[in-house]
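FAQ: What does a multi-protein file look like?

Like this. Sequence, then tokens, then the next protein.
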Amino acid sequence: MGSSYFYLEFLLAWLEILQKAGYHNPAIFALEYTLVPDQIYPLQLQQNVAGYEHLCSIIKDPGRICLAGDSAGATLQLSLLLYLSKASFPGRESEEQQQRMPGFATLISPWPTLVTPKNRDTPSDYLNAESLHLYGRQYAGSTSNLKDPLVSPGVCKDGEWWTRASPSGGFCFMYGSEEVFGPEVRDLIALLRRNGCAVRVREEPGQVHAWPVVSLFLANTLGERTKGLRDLTKMVREVIEPVGGLVDGVEAGS
């Protein structure tokens, strides 16, 4: 399901909602990254970095960029933020690093830690923890890589690193209360908040993994189908205000 074409209806619906929210010329850059098992880490992160650098070359002001992604795509966005803010990043001073950070990150049901006992099946969610751990190990390529924050962001407990990794406007997390990744997402949110990061949260009661995406395809009414996107856009607008005549960029990973 990682193809941008699978998400085309979702992205077009979001584009329309962004326009109605007052964005003069919103643009969505959807990254078509290589999936497992065709390739493994670090190719997907390298592709995401290249996509972000391309977007920065167009937008000029990274503060107008909102990173977005759901599930593994949201995990890649967390990896991207940690990569951009890594203390040993060659040739980049800390101030310059901050100038390259995006304005906001909207993360739908991220997969913070690829393999952990906290990823457990629930009665409601359609995901299976055992299968997810298999895919996570395939992506990592080795057991040692599972301990690398750039592979599995949830293993990073370095508060200072996460503070550097925060977009200028902070994070937004949207996830379902019944999903497999719920405990890990809550732990990451708590860690970010303890270290002074701005975090907006929408934990939808009774919902499952990637509920804004699932709802768009399966809900009965238009209001139910677009609820997640409208909530998401509202939070984006609180951080990145519409400016007439400018292109506002959203980089989406799926």
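And here is the next protein:
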Amino acid sequence: MRVWDGLDSSSQISFSSQSPPIATMTENPNLQRALLRRLEELPPFSTFDSTKVALIEDGPPPLPEDSLDLSSFPCLTMSSGKKIFARLLVGADGLNSPVRTYAGIPSRGWDYERHGVVATVKYSERIKYHEGDNAAMAYQRFLPSGPIALLAMPGEFATLVWTTTHGKAAKLKALAQKDLVAMVNAAFRLDNVDLEYMSGLNDGITEELTWRSGVIGAKEDEARIPRLVESVQEGSVASFPLRYRQADSYISSRVALIGDAAHTVHPLAGQGLNMGLADVQSLAKTIEHSVKHGGDIGDEMYLDRYNNEMWMQNNRMLGVTDKLHKLYGVGSGPIVGLRSLGLKMVDRLGPVKGWLMKQAGGMGT
């Protein structure tokens, strides 16, 4: 993996093929298929297809003749009319979580005034994997408007993640495929001034890149940047607003929040999914501990183990990505020189790089 400053290409940090692989890229459908196969191997459980949760509320007060008190249980009313009472309701329902709203848990943060543009792109040649492992190089360049990254997938494909302003994101999505390809190639090769000029063009972007590459030359060494992107997979271009969010707590009585329902992170470190998976792992261990000790899995006394482990861990990652976003959003002044010096120093410190690799791979604590 190579990460560098778009305003100072000598300021970089690299993780070579001699290091353990930082992470593995997989497409979402592959992950979903693997999870579904695993579910089929487990004891029978109930699934509800083609239905929605219409309402979440507290269970009804017990009647005198009732032996079971469900008044403290969350009651889910499905769109089919079916009611489900939950001993523990896990909110894995995203940024605007209805489960979090039901539990009355505040979520605080702000919008970054940026959009992430994503797509699947194809290189002009097949990726050559490093000998002895399955790792291919990932690239990320920090531009003043936001970072752009290409994350290798099998064969000649890669995932594009480009953070930029709302206006530029809308324009990138509206470009013809050849012009979008030209903008991606330019973003890794040209000076920011040239890139800003090209961003203002409505047509002729491909020809402009060809001219500037020939006359001005690439700002970056071709041997240290991604291969030329050849095409963009049809239907793969999308965008989403970037936000910072952290719930005040990940738990309440009979409720636990995981993933984006609990926290929303800037994608510059690629940690959103890893953080959500870590939530799942921690909550599963918490439930297992509760069952082994004969406890109530929805009791806050037991759920506190999950909250205590993950809230601060996630808060640290949220803070790091937020500060990096703000640091690399500065386009001039002494901060540019200081951050360049800092990144160069980190690149020379092996133990620090090792720690960063563990964090990026979701193995840190």
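Q: Is there any per-entry metadata?
A: Some entries carry free-text notes. For the entry above: The chain is about 35% helix and 25% strand.
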